[in-house]
Amino acid sequence: MNKVILMGRLTRDPEVRYSQGGDSSMAIARYTLAVDRRGRSNNNGDEQTADFINIVAFGRNGEFAEKYLHKGTKIVVTGRIQTGSYTNKDGNKVYTTDVVVEEQEFAESKNASSANGGGYQAEASAPMAASEGFMNVPEGIDEDLPFAQPNR
Predict the structure, then answer these.
(1) Which of 33, 40, 80, 141 could be 2's S-S partner, Cβ–Cβ 3.0 to 4.6 Å?
(2) Residue pLDDT, tens place only, 49-104
(3) How far apart are CA 80 and CA 96, in angstroms?
(4) Which residue range(s) make up the domain with 90?
């Protein structure tokens, strides 16, 4: 079985290219995920260490990465490890290891991401949220809501 689950932050914005095959093109997004190591630290014990994992997302997953993922965004990726090799311009064989995305999703809220320097921000047209986590409903439209209480 080849199954990987990772949680970490993007180290940079995804690089997205589109393949040119046949009548359609497919998005191919590449990004690096910084994943904290558990239980390991330097001699002082005050510095976290991380692994930097190369991620590749194809098709709709690639389009999602292009649209929503940015440097600093914390995500969870489920996928599989894929290895490969190629010969570089100097004639040396280079071995690669990537995680191919099967699923990817956000691992924190937009507010937490913004506080941590994450990449995605709420759009200016989005409604403001109340402190309890519910959206404020402007006056006068509550009678159109199916769950609104009748005026007494």
Answers:
(1) 80
(2) 899 999 999 999 999 999 999 999 999 999 999 999 999 999 999 999 999 999 99
(3) 14
(4) 4-122
Both structure tokens of 70? 């940015």
Provide the number of structural domains found in the chain.
1
- Residue 12 falls inside a structural domain: yes
| H-type alpha helices, 3-152 | 60-68, 110-115
Specify the pTM. 0.68
Please tell me whether residue 37 adopts helix, strand or coil conformation: strand
Q: Is residue 138 part of a domain?
A: no
Neighbours of 84 (CB within 10 A): 9
Q: What residues does 103 pair with on adjacent strands?
A: 78
Measured at the alpha carbon of residue 140, what is the angle toward residues 136 and 143, in degrees to the nearest 5?
Answer: 95
d(CA 10, CA 106): 11
Would residue 111 count as lying in a domain? yes
